[in-house]
């Protein structure tokens, strides 16, 4: 569809060169708000990209300015350090793009107030514009995306006493991220250019950017709305996060039970990490609620409702013989239910000591963790078949004749399109990054080969295929499937299995993040070469500061990070997952997942094969149903990969937010979207941005002021809403 069909008559053409930047900004502000006059009910996801996002552009706006360099480098450094700190926190917090966006806007507009005469014009070339802002956001958010390579390096340090040379470590981090860049570039024709390539979490980012920089009566109202919501959540969020933590997980059933029964805690508990799966637990903390992005993602999480039934029934039905183990944990356990003694069965060459293994036995998983792995693998298998059945035309268009390798352009149906970086640039980057990654894998301490070259190549190719699946908006977890494959390729070798996850799993997710940034640049008319440069710069800075901050934290908190529980300030639970997987699957995978073992763990890898067939019945019913009928709609709407994924989504970290997400999601994605489409288009995604931005700012302040990121934690006084002897939702006794 052409740009004219989407209202290109309303788009201001490029101003003459003689105009000043101020005049250009004013000319853009004259564009009326008629872009939203014909607002209709958004039937399809891609309709959001057309109706919510403006297509106006000024190609002469300056981009590579002093502001971009200073704020880009400064915020990238800050974001990388903060994101690394969050990696070692008990909560699953991240530095969002909205946080970077707000800080960049405040600082950028402040710098735009500086003088413009004389040499000052190089510091302040004019108003802070949307393209500068986008470049800074992409750079900072790329740096804030903590590399899995850093987490793997931390696991080697903590659990294997293997400390990589600093240069090798930084290049390893950078190379694995660059692999994702190469893949992202080569997949643009399929997953960036077309309108169906829709990234819902980025709509609020673009909506906010345009509201901040495009003037006019409508956008002035939207800016006022944004700052009101931003201030409200800023002043509210410190209450549930610090003074009144009961509000992070309100469970009436738990308060009545008061921690007396394990069943109640397992099913309804949600206030502490690994406490329970949070049935009917509600949160008022947006820091937790935003993990479910209820104002952004469509309602396709039926699987989570099934998860409450499946996980509870499996545990109390003693599936996988896990009834004598804790309800939730990602740690490994021995036959007697205690923590598994991995150091006794892994020798100095990082291989299995068979004599010790015969004495100690194989490790065990909690039932909920095993079920989660099974569901994730089931989801992965289903995704491949689902795409082949429902998206075959798009696949054929993108990959027919391998056209995506020969060109950087496609038949574009999206008005936000701009000319791209040549395809060969991404191909060269991919090959060079692969070579660097292989070189670093042969530079382990004491001559240790971390993973052989043939294995890196194999898992990188596999990751490329997975990246296509992820690009069709499937929220999948592929790490368990990758680790199981690696366990059979590298039996008895835990470290290669850990590295296989790095090249086979994280590369595909890094690809998805970079595809989203390419789409962000496309929406805001940022020239692709600047998007590419911003991503590269952010990754370089992120690699350096990820590693530097990780070393500081690990060296100062080694014992706490190795402890399965941790403290309220620091926790190694993310790093421990890599260690647990490398031991269970790397050292014992062939035995642990073989048919005939008493625990029945062979079902976990086999689930990927079963998953290949799960979408077929729904597709057959859809084909047989009357076109346009409710049955046909239901069969098409049931996204099997997502449903199966969410069945295993719950047994991790805290779970107090999901019922709040459900309520908010219904209000947003059904009631507002269908009953008030005009308001939905104007304000829904802007509200999401304001809530995320305000909560991120206050969380950062609290982290350094009272949560101990600066070195000293300051606990809030104990009272009914902040108990000392129970979890905050009264579901679990913490002290006897």
Structural class: mainly alpha
What is the number of helices?
34
What is the gyration radius calculated from CA atoms?
Answer: 26 Å
Number of strands: 0
Which residue ranges are poorly predicted, with pLDDT under 50 across at least 5 consecutive positions? Answer: 1-39
Nearest-integer average pLDDT: 79
User: How far from one another are the termini?
Assistant: 67 Å
SSE layout and pairing:
Elements: H1 21-29, H2 45-51, H3 66-87, H4 97-111, H5 120-123, H6 130-144, H7 148-160, H8 166-186, H9 188-191, H10 200-213, H11 217-243, H12 252-257, H13 262-268, H14 286-289, H15 302-316, H16 342-345, H17 354-360, H18 367-390, H19 392-399, H20 403-406, H21 423-441, H22 453-471, H23 479-489, H24 494-523, H25 528-556, H26 558-562, H27 573-587, H28 589-592, H29 603-611, H30 615-624, H31 630-637, H32 640-647, H33 658-675, H34 677-705
Précis, in short:
The chain has helices at 21-29, 45-51, 66-87, 97-111, 120-123, 130-144, 148-160, 166-186, 188-191, 200-213, 217-243, 252-257, 262-268, 286-289, 302-316, 342-345, 354-360, 367-390, 392-399, 403-406, 423-441, 453-471, 479-489, 494-523, 528-556, 558-562, 573-587, 589-592, 603-611, 615-624, 630-637, 640-647, 658-675, 677-705. It is mostly helical.
């Amino acid at each position: 569809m052409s740009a004219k069909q989407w209202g290109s008559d309303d788009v201001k053409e490029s101003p003459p060169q003689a105009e000043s930047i101020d005049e250009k900004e004013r000319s853009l502000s004259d564009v009326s708000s008629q872009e939203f006059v014909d607002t209709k009910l958004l039937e399809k996801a891609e309709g959001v990209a057309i109706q919510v996002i403006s297509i106006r552009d000024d190609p002469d706006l300056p981009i590579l300015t002093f502001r971009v360099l200073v704020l880009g480098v400064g915020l990238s450094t800050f974001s990388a350090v903060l994101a690394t700190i969050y990696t070692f926190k008990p909560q699953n917090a991240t530095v969002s793009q909205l946080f970077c966006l707000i800080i960049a806007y405040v600082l950028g507009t402040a710098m735009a107030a500086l003088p413009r005469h004389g040499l000052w014009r190089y510091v302040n070339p004019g108003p802070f514009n949307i393209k500068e802002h986008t470049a800074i956001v992409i750079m900072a958010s790329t740096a804030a995306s903590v590399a899995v390579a850093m987490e793997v390096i931390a696991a080697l340090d903590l659990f294997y006493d293997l400390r990589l040379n600093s240069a090798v470590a930084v290049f390893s981090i950078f190379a694995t991220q660059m692999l994702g860049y190469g893949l992202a570039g080569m997949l643009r024709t399929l997953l960036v250019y077309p309108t169906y390539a829709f990234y819902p979490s980025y709509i609020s980012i673009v909506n906010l950017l345009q509201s901040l920089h495009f003037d006019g009566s409508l956008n002035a109202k939207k800016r006022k709305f944004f700052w009101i919501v931003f201030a409200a959540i800023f002043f509210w969020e410190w209450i549930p996060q610090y003074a009144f933590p009961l509000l992070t997980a309100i469970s009436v059933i738990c308060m009545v039970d008061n921690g007396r029964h394990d069943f109640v805690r397992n099913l309804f508990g949600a206030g502490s990490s690994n406490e329970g799966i949070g049935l009917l637990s509600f949160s008022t903390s947006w820091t937790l609620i935003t993990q479910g992005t209820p104002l952004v993602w469509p309602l396709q999480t039926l699987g989570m409702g099934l998860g409450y039934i499946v996980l509870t029934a499996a545990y109390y039905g003693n599936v996988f013989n896990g009834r004598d183990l804790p309800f939730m944990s990602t740690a490994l356990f021995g036959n007697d239910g205690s923590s598994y003694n991995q150091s006794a069965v892994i020798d100095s060459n990082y291989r299995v000591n068979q004599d010790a293994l015969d004495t100690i036995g194989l490790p065990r998983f909690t039932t909920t963790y095993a079920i989660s792995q099974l569901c994730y693998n089931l989801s992965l298998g289903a995704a491949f078949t689902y795409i082949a059945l429902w998206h075959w035309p798009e696949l054929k268009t993108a990959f027919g004749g391998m056209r995506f390798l020969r060109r950087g352009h496609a038949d574009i149906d999206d008005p936000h399109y701009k000319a791209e970086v040549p395809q060969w640039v991404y191909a060269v980057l991919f090959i060079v990054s692969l070579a660097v990654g292989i070189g670093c894998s042969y530079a382990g301490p004491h001559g240790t080969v971390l993973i052989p070259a043939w294995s890196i190549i194999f898992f990188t190719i596999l990751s490329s295929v997975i990246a296509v699946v992820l690009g069709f908006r499937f929220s999948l977890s592929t790490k368990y499937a990758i680790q199981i494959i690696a366990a059979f390729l590298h039996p008895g070798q835990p470290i290669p299995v850990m590295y296989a996850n790095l090249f086979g799993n994280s590369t595909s997710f890094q690809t998805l993040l970079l595809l989203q940034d390419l789409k962000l640049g496309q929406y805001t008319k940022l020239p692709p070469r600047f998007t590419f440069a911003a991503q590269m710069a952010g990754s370089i800075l992120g690699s350096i500061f990820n590693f530097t901050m990780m070393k500081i934290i690990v060296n100062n908190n080694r014992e706490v990070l190795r402890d399965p529980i941790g403290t309220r300030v620091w926790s190694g639970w993310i790093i421990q997952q890599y260690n647990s997987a490398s031991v269970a699957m790397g050292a014992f995978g062939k035995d642990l997942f073989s048919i005939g073992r008493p625990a029945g763990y062979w079902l976990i890898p086999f689930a990927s094969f079963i998953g290949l067939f799960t979408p077929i019945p729904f597709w057959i019913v859809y084909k047989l149903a009357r076109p346009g009928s409710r049955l046909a709609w239901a069969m098409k709407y049931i996204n099997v990969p997502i449903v199966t994924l969410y069945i295993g989504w719950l047994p991790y970290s805290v779970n107090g937010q999901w019922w709040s997400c459900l309520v908010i999601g219904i209000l947003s994605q059904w009631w507002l979207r269908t009953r008030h489409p005009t308001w939905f288009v104007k304000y829904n995604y802007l509200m999401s941005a304001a809530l995320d931005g305000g909560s991120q700012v206050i969380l950062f302040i609290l982290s350094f002021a009272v949560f101990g990121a600066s070195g000293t934690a300051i606990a809030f006084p104990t009272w009914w809403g902040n108990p000392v002897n129970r979890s905050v939702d009264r579901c679990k006794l913490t002290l006897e």
